[in-house]
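Continuing from the previous page of notes. For each protein in this section, the sequence appears first, followed by its structure tokens. Read the first protein now.
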Amino acid sequence: MPWNWGTSAEYFDRLDGTLMPNIGFMVGHSALRRVVMHEAASRREATLDEIEQMKTLLRAGLAAGGIRFSSAWSPSHNDHLGQPVPSRCSSADELIARCSVVSEYPGTQLEFIPDVGEFSDDSFRLMGWMSAAANRPLNWNLLQVYAQNWDLVQHQLAGYDLAAAEGGRVLALTST
């Protein structure tokens, strides 16, 4: 597909009539950071002015039909050069500010990948704050359930209580 679009709405218009049902688009945190911060997106936290610009772009993306805001802090998420994706350079305040925008759009969702392996209590608290700011459940990828990792699964599931204590609702996505 030619890259002849610049906004979420233009992208969705480009796809009109070419997709089958059962598809939804996320407005990605890294894309928002790249548009606003350019090369600095993978190097530093955003300024307050940059956060406001990204909130404006997120609003436009959700208004155009995006169904979810997605972000990741997972150390496994790197770009084609092996550098951290831009969302990994964001602060908790930036994430929470973005999630507050999601609350303005009924039917929208959150998706976040905080880490690889066992999540820290701080990760669960952050997901709780994100969920509370958006007034939406937060889906995180990916809870892999095997007989061999039962202790890890129990730890990850217990983190829901930490998120709930912060006013949020966190739901794991898993594979069948």
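Done with the first. The second protein uses the same format. Note its length before scrolling.
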Amino acid sequence: MFRLGIVGSDNSHAEAFSKLANLDEGINGLRMEGCRVTHIYGTDPKRTEEVAMNGKIPKIVAKAEEMIGAVDGIMCVWRHGGRHLPDTLPFLKAGIPAFVDKPLACSVADAEQLVDAAEKAKVGFTSFSTLRYAKNVVDYINSLKGTAGPLMAGVSSGPAELDSEYGGIFFYGIHAVELMNAVWGYGCESVKATEHNKNVVVACKFGNGALVTLNLMGNATYAFHLAAFGKDGWKEHTVDSSTCYFDGMKIYLEAMKTGKWPLTREQLLEPVRILSAIEKSLKENREVMCTEV
């Protein structure tokens, strides 16, 4: 049985992942076999106890480091990406594989330090929005390969809060950015962001010639929606998130067990670079190269 520890109880994801592993009924009829969430750490005792009870997690620890030696892998799932570096590093240094929930970090420097530590530890490591691995999104991407040809334009839409207490645009904006990377690939070279009445539109230029628009909504009803336009055709898609926790958990558990990373170093860093460049573009009202951040 693969033993998992959760670092950070404030996020709903802590509850979702523990239910998938620990409850007989799982979520929506889906259950993760071969693992158990055995430990959890959080700073809000009431919330931590709630997650432990709902997810049937047997052990609450007073300090995250108490899990070292008692778990085979950890999930760092704090809402604020700024907490991910300090609370994940001790486990990587101890040789424990880790999944860091989205966003990997709220700065490129923190993200690079995390990836450096994971590479040095030679353990399974990854970070992502589980939406990118939802079965319906993967099916959509595969359908584009057969019908649309090379993708040259499109739109990725989702929520964002510029003033979120959990890292501003990073907290929710990461979803639309990672969906963009999953569909259009990597190699975003520059961004130009415009904000109006808390909604943000970002023009993202890719090295292969693609131009993709991010619709980040802070003052409108949102959907995770994709529309991809290629040389030979186009197709839109509204994301169904009902299986995303299960689909994502399969990916990171495999990484933890095998040591094989599902995303490369640069693939892990690019979404953080894009969001950092968007922040800079909004602040300075100009197009920003992703290499500037």
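What the second structure shows: The two ends are 42 Å apart (CA to CA). Residues 80 and 129 are 14 Å apart (CA to CA). We return to this in next week's lecture.
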